[in-house]
Amino acid sequence: MGFKINLSSKKMVGIDIGYSSIKILELSKAGNKYTLDSIDLVNLPSGIVSDGFLKDHASAIAYIKSSFANHGMKDKNVVISIPCKHVIIKNIDMPKMKESELDSAIFYEAQQYITYDIKEVSFDYEILGNSAADAGSNLIMIIAGKKDIINDRVDLMNECGLHSPIVDVDCIATENMFNFNYPEETEQMAGIIKVGATETNVHIVNKGFNLFRRDIPIGGVNITEEIAKKFQMDFNEAENIKTGGIEKRDENFKTNYMIYINMIVARITSEIQRTIDYFAANNDKQYPKKIFLTGGSAMLSGLSGDIESKLNIPVSIINPFRKIVFGNNIGDTSFIESKYSLFGVAVGLAVRGLEP
Ligand SMILES: Nc1ncnc2c1ncn2[C@@H]1O[C@H](COP(=O)(O)OP(=O)(O)OP(=O)(O)O)[C@@H](O)[C@H]1O
Ligand SMILES: [Mg+2]
After folding, report:
1. What is the spatial distance between Cα 122 and Cα 89, in angstroms, rounded to a whole number?
2. Per the count of CB atoms within 10 A, which of 135, 237, 238, 320 is most buried?
3. What CATH number was assigned to the domain covering residues 183-317?
4. Architecture of domain 87-145
5. Pocket residues for ligand 1 (CB within 6 Å)?
6. N-terminal to C-terminal alpha carbon distance within the chain
7. Mutation to probe ligand 1, out of 24, 39, 50, 342 (largest number of atoms < 8 A from CB)
8. What is the pLDDT of residues 305-331, one digit of tens each?
């Protein structure tokens, strides 16, 4: 009698299109080992992405094609995502039934939660497992994404020669990335907070499931705009100062800047606190035991310490590559290590594509 071990390598490219940059990375999987084969960060001029839609397909195509060419990425299996705000996601309990009956029963049940015009959405669902409340039911995640944004992004991929992409959702990718990298942290309630360019997403998760999501309309772009206004400089200069350039300024400027940035940080913390208090007030006063930060603005000076001290909950910055080995082609890893908060969604997308 023989046995087989499947060590054949599979590859997948995750492409995360954000307001300020496109993150592209290729992962391969052999057995249980995940390797990062390529990675790229393509900064976007402002105006290319607006409310999640690509306003300039020609430029985005050129950026993506040259990123694939420069990094020798030949793989055409891609996973993309759409922003959470264009999607309705809800976990519902449904009695267990035959697969043939499930599609129409779920669609019928889901319609009450879909506040968009039903003709304008693509609908999907995923069976998450047994319902906690009733052994005869399954917990099912229903997902209804707006067709206009899905088509916008799928068209872009087709125009890049990347056909039939898998389409995921930013916030689901973030949670998958966390579950993949921090399996030992999934046993207790945790907060995952993604602070991006246009918004801050608060997720409360437990045992690999989502309990709550809420978006706060503050992100890195607002912060840069406020710095630019306060210190009377243009956006690019303010962005440079915020992302490390402050070190080159004189002591007087540094002092004034730190006072101002601490004020902005305190405002973000207080919005996060309000959101988590709201969750707790509606959930038996339960608070997450730990908070995990990701997204580019997680690197904002003083943010993680401020959240930790004011909410009195330990805060760490997520390493999306915690369970991933860097391949030989990656070369100097210091670039990735200094910016890894940017790559959480892209990792979640590629990992999703490699799941059995
Ligand atoms: N070192 C840093 N300190 C503070 N902020 C930073 C730093 N590096 C990057 N950022 C900010 O992170 C933001 C980009 O984060 P991210 O890539 O997660 O957002 P995005 O995917 O482009 O946008 P979104 O998801 O909101 O559409 C920018 O606003 C940028 O200014
Ligand atoms: Mg993003």
Report:
1. 12
2. 320
3. 3.30.420.40
4. 2-Layer Sandwich (3.30)
5. 18-21, 196-199, 219-221, 224, 239, 242-244, 295-297, 299-300, 342
6. 25
7. 342
8. 999 999 999 999 999 999 999 999 898
